[in-house]
Amino acid sequence: MPHYSAAVAHLTDWSSAVRARRRLGHTIEVHETIGSTNDRARELLIESGVDGGVVIAEEQSAGRGRRGRTWLSPPGVNLMLSVALQPAVLARDAWQLGLATALATRAACVASIEGSALGLKWPNDLVTSDGRKVAGLLLETEVTGERLSAAVLGIGINVNWRRGEMPPDIATDATSLAELAGAEVDRVALLDRLLDALDDEVTHIEQGRSPLRRYRAACVTIGQEVTVHAAGETIVGRAVDIDDVGSLVLETATSRVALATGEVAFVRTGLQE
Ligand code: BTN
Asked: How far is the CA of 64 from the centre of ligand 1 (A)?
């Protein structure tokens, strides 16, 4: 049964993004303020085992980013959501979920800003042609034996946050869909498109269809000279590929290394549509 719950009546009405027949977003829980939507989605998985439930917040008091960072967003202008999933995916294929979520986010955002190119910075940041970040993903998974028993796909998109209103340290490296579109972007329609795209991506993975080829085509890190912070080390080199398990392949002055996780600190993008 489709389900929509919002704790406060004056919130944006997200109910048109609820789709009874779609696995992702057949139920949407909206919070005016919450600690982190990822934590709430995890709770839902534990409490009710809901598969495909979505949690949205207008504001997070403890929004988390990758690598222990904070995710900042003013209330009511952006899209912050987490999807609670029980995917039929082997633990060894968990990396595909990150790539697929990034591709779905890109597809949904591109449709909001006709004419602007957006690419994926490894592992899963959505960036503009001049390298400004528009969206980030935080995936948290639980493994039981050889299977992924649960996954939380956390997505934060800068939608209607104007650069002039961002703190200076964020404005230096970030932008928003509204800046790129030159107009306000409909957050409910964006959510609906995102859940459609993500629903397809998850189904593909469960059917054994890897997102890797499409991810490589969208990844702007490949071909760039980069500095990567990984496992307490800083590695400088040329990004040459994403390998068959989603790792970034770097050619350094002395060797070829594959990094399963890390932070690309610097990329000179040359994005082409
Ligand atoms: C990153 O780029 O470092 C990842 C940012 C992920 C932010 C989203 S907002 C919704 C969800 N809840 C969180 O606490 N984090 C993710």
From this structure: 5
